[in-house]
Amino acid sequence: MSDTNIRLIVGLGNPGAQYEATRHNVGFWLADQLAGDYKTSFTVEPSFFGLVAKFKTIDGNVYLLKPSTYMNRSGQAVRALAQFYKIAVEEILVLHDELDLPPGQMKLKKGGGHAGHNGLRDIQAQMGSPDFWRLRIGVGHPRTLGLNQQVADYVLHMPRKEDMPLIESGLSRCRVSVAALLKGDKNLASRALAEPKDGDK
């Protein structure tokens, strides 16, 4: 079995209409796009503290999860679903906003720290391990973008108009990357995230 056998994909965000378009919810955006790609839809699952969708691959069922708790309690939903379906931490992919990457830059990694991200911190605590996969969706940092804004305030606001096309393009590459990862091809999954160079189509 490949070490990239993903059985649970978790999009991170905050529930509620007031947060839908904010930077902190880009994980939800990508989860919604993946649900469309795989012709599935989310249903409310109170026992899993979130919205859950399911689709089949050659290796079996894959679950999509959007926790309905606030970001800092994301791990509650992840643990509940993973325990019920006996999903190992190494079989989990988390989609999340990343301050340390500029808007539109995406990176895939397995394991590592949480870098102060409350959702990652809680998943790591609830699962007892940092060894899950992460798809880091760059939203930029207010300091590197020259904005006089606190991080907590920054992530709870919409991306700037000039950043949205970059993020949307990056999310399209993420969808290709996830498809490759689901087939066990980690190298292709990482290459798919590369930003197109000038002149590339």
UniProtKB/TrEMBL annotation:
Indicate the annotated site residue(s) for Discriminates between blocked and unblocked aminoacyl-tRNA: N14
Q: Where is this site: Stabilizes the basic form of H active site to accept a proton?
A: D97
Q: Which Pfam families match?
A: Pept_tRNA_hydro
Q: What is its main location?
A: cytoplasm
Q: Which GO terms describe its cellular component?
A: cytoplasm
Q: Which InterPro entries match?
A: Pept_tRNA_hydro, Pept_tRNA_hydro_CS, Pept_tRNA_hydro_sf
A single GO BP annotation from the record?
A: rescue of stalled ribosome
Which residues are noted in the entry as tRNA-binding? Y19, Y70, N72, N118
**Record key words, sorted:** Cytoplasm, Hydrolase, RNA-binding, tRNA-binding
**Gene Ontology molecular functions:** peptidyl-tRNA hydrolase activity; tRNA binding
Q: Which reaction does it catalyse?
A: an N-acyl-L-alpha-aminoacyl-tRNA + H2O = an N-acyl-L-amino acid + a tRNA + H(+)
Lineage, top-rank taxon, reads Bacteria
Q: Where in the cell is it found?
A: Cytoplasm
Family, per entry: Belongs to the PTH family.
What job does the chain carry out? Hydrolyzes ribosome-free peptidyl-tRNAs (with 1 or more amino acids incorporated), which drop off the ribosome during protein synthesis, or as a result of ribosome stalling. Catalyzes the release of premature peptidyl moieties from peptidyl-tRNA molecules trapped in stalled 50S ribosomal subunits, and thus maintains levels of free tRNAs and 50S ribosomes.
Q: What is this protein called?
A: Peptidyl-tRNA hydrolase
